[in-house]
Amino acid sequence: xxxxxxxxxxxxxxxxxxxxxxxxxxxxxxxxxxxxxEALKQLLIAPLVSFRGETAAFNVQSLYQILALMIPTMFTGxxxxxxxxxxxxxxxxxxxxxxxxxxxxxxxxxxPMPAGVHPxxxxxxxxxxxxLVTLIPALLRVKVGASEMVSSLMFNYVVMYxxxxxxxxxxxxxSKGSTQSFPFIETVKIPQLVTGGSRLTYGFLIxxxxxxxxxxxxxxxxxxxxxxxxxxNSNFAKYSGMSVASTLILAQFIGGLxxxxxxxxxxxxxxNTFLWKELPxxxxxxxxIAILARNNPAFVPFAAFFLAYLDRGCQLMSTHSDxxxxxxAIIQASIFLFFAAEQFLSGARQKLVVKNAKDELAAMEAExxxxxx
Length: 373
Description:
By secondary structure, the protein is mainly alpha-helical. The protein is built from 14 helices and 2 strands. The chain has one domain: ABC transporter involved in vitamin B12 uptake, BtuC, CATH 1.10.3470. Strands 1-2 form a two-stranded antiparallel ribbon. The relative contact order is 0.19.
């Protein structure tokens, strides 16, 4: 009973945080816009409903765009769930995404392979490189005690500038007007899941498969149990005989591997050349998704859909109103603030704990009285 109540409380707490974050965004919209109601309509309704005059209809193409936006962020959300479950705040998912995408692009340009094999190899190698990006801050934490938050944050930019150096000076297609790589070989492209101009690829189905795999790994395997136990109490895990250092390293490597895979799938599915000239932002979004999902991989698709919906809404809002698309950053920051605040609704949580204790005490007293008779 207590477990059910806590699950219900956490869901309600999450909904309250989302509502408050949207309320904060609405306040900014009313302050910044001359047509706030039109802006709110574009933000909250237009992602799934198209308006033509007085008529409204379900917009299936916009739904496809939302699902396409979910692909890389589901992978980064899963990666952050694994890393944060070990109580290591590794922020290297952003660098892992970019590195995974870049290496997959190079394989797609310079290593011809048969169709079917080519994208698999490119994605797997990109995933491994992503794992190495998050592995380095983990090793620094375990071996020399360096803060993984600081080292991973800095290492993201090291990765970005290394990639930009090679993109600008080694792999750039000089015949193009902007900095980009040579075109990918056609056999490496991840095919479209829906035709007709949609960006939705089979990467979406792959992401859903990895949601299931990650959930099983975290909640049905010994390694997942060790990761979660170390995240809850590393001292208890240590004295229980668990190898804390190796488990921490494993969790960070898996998190980077998932993020790198997301970057590789996004690049090979969405683009024909490598175009990223800065960190793409999917790693930061993955942190918000993991917080919304409370580090549970099963909830990642729902959190990713919510943020992709808002992202699409902000795009439409900036197009059809006078509010810039950067409003999504305000919403994400507000969600992060309310979710991360330990004291948010702590009074209600304490009342729930006390009520459950009283119920258990009353049940024990009733059972004792029954035995006395």
